[in-house]
Amino acid sequence: MTKRFAVTALLSASFCASLVWADPGAPSFTVDFSQCTEFAGVGPINFAKASALVPSVFSTLPVGATGGIVIRATSCAGVSVNGGHAVPTTISQIGVEIVPPDGTGDINNYTLVYVSNNPELVEQFNKVGVPALLDPDLTYQFTYDSTGKAGYLYVAADAFGLSNYFIAGTETDPTGPYPGGFRANWWYAGKDGNVKQASVFPDIAFGSSSVTFFTDKNSVLGKLIGGNSYSTFTFLPLRGVYSTAHMVVTASHT
Q1: How many Cα atoms within 13 Å fall on the side-chain side of residue 76?
Q2: Hey, is 125 helix, strand or coil?
Q3: At a CB cut-off of 8 Å and minimum separation 6, what does 33 contact?
Q4: Which residues lie below 8 Å from residue 17, measured CB to CB, with a gap of 6+?
Q5: Contact 109, 70 (CB under 8 A)
Q6: With respect to CATH, is domain 33-253 assigned 1.10.8.60?
Q7: Measured between alpha carbons, how far is 132 from 190 in angstroms, rounded to an integer?
Q8: d(Cα 254, Cα 89) in Å, to the nearest integer?
């Protein structure tokens, strides 16, 4: 299997004139994750519609004649920002696959949505220029069936300023770790510079997933998927399980 990952922000049309990947004077922060599960799905989407949501400083990744939408939701027993106290945290991200801007990562995505129930995490993203949204009631529920190896996933996001969306369906636990770990980069072009989220998952394991994403068909996301629902995660439908992960978020000045 090719290293693709599906695995955040009001939809934005912000554009930047140039990219500066290394800027020691730019703001940054770190996040550590522990005891997490996630849904990560990648599927085909109209290339022109996807590209219209990606600032021109980035390049939408062509997958045949289409682009790739990335929908992710994760729940962690502990999330620590800048080495602080770890707290239970739920996160959901939606984005579009892009060509790696700096040649790193197993997947690179442009951020359309970032929502979390962790106020400190949301605040740090806002400080570096990513309009992350706070949803105190962000829901991530996975309920095992009688086998103890599979179950039902339900995710619900309802932040102020965000069209509500839901994720629901069945998933199966992984049977072994993904060789070599995984590296995922999410990007955002803010008015003051470009922000990179670089996450390393050293022991992630992937199981299977069969879920559907639901939202308002008249919202930006609804227009992107072409209706109220989307379940065509043919590029990558996964249930992820990992004990630890580390993320470095850096912003560049323009």
Answers
A1: 21
A2: helix
A3: 74, 76, 78, 79, 89, 242, 244, 245, 246, 247
A4: 57, 254
A5: yes
A6: no
A7: 12
A8: 32
| Burial (Cβ within 10 Å: 0-12, 13-18, ≥19) of residue 158 | middle
Query: What tens digit of pLDDT does each residue of 76-105 get?
Result: 999 999 999 999 999 999 999 999 999 999
Q: Sign of the CA dihedral 13, 16, 20, 23?
A: negative
Could you read off the pLDDT of 141-188 as tens digits, one per residue?
999 999 999 999 999 999 988 999 999 999 999 998 999 999 999 999
pLDDT band at 12 (very low <50, low <70, confident <90, very high): very low
Q: In this structure, are residues 110 and 96 in contact, taking their beta carbons and an 8 Å threshold?
A: yes
H/E stretch holding 239 reads strand 236-253
Strand partners, 165: 157, 215
pLDDT at position 190: 82
Q: Letter for the amino acid at 161?
A: G
pTM higher than 0.85, yes or no?
yes
Phi, psi of 123 (to 5 degrees): -60, -45
